[in-house]
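Figure 6 in text form: structure in, sequence out.
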């Protein structure tokens, strides 16, 4: 896997088994902000589940099916970003991300997403990146909007959350569109 500096104090790098405790502690300290949008936090009940997540991410990367990276600020894990599934025949991927509560509001996810999208279009030669967010999750929706993604539509009741079903906003970016926007960043 790769390590990618984003700016002086921020880096993307792979999660390793030695990061399981830090990953779990970040999730535990951020449950109040993550749980409404990310049902998987209910299954993350200890370091063992964090180790499983990291091992699964490594397997998917080795199989060329997904890429997951930790987002680090000053050598502290701040969040996770990745391509859930890479569809090589369509040259497309869906990006997902989350950030620990104490790291919110500083543009870290936008910075990481920009780098991940560059990597997808330039290094992986993908043609399309998609971001899906619950329509009521304004903070998550702000990321693709800030990066110039096109809102392509809504998926009704796309995900079962704690308090019912959530509709998803679907945002898309094509390689040719990103090339045109890239100099603006």
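Output sequence:
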């Amino acid at each position: 896997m790769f390590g990618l500096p984003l700016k002086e104090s921020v880096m993307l790098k792979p999660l390793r088994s030695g990061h399981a405790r830090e990953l779990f502690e970040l999730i535990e300290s951020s449950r109040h902000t993550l749980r409404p949008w990310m049902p998987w936090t209910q299954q993350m009940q200890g370091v063992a589940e964090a180790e499983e997540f990291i091992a699964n991410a490594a397997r998917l990367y080795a199989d060329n099916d997904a890429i997951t990276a930790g987002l680090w600020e000053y050598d502290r894990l701040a969040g996770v970003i990745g391509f859930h599934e890479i569809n090589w025949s369509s040259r497309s991927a869906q990006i997902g991300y989350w950030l620990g509560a104490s790291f919110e509001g500083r543009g870290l996810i936008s910075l990481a997403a920009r780098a991940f999208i560059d990597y997808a279009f330039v290094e992986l030669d993908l043609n399309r990146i998609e971001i899906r967010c619950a329509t009521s999750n304004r903070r998550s929706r702000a990321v693709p909007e800030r990066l110039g993604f096109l809102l392509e539509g809504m998926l009704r009741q796309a995900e079962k959350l704690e308090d019912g079903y959530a509709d998803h906003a679907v945002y898309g970016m094509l390689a040719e569109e990103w090339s045109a926007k890239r100099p603006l960043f």
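Caption detail: The mean pLDDT is 93.
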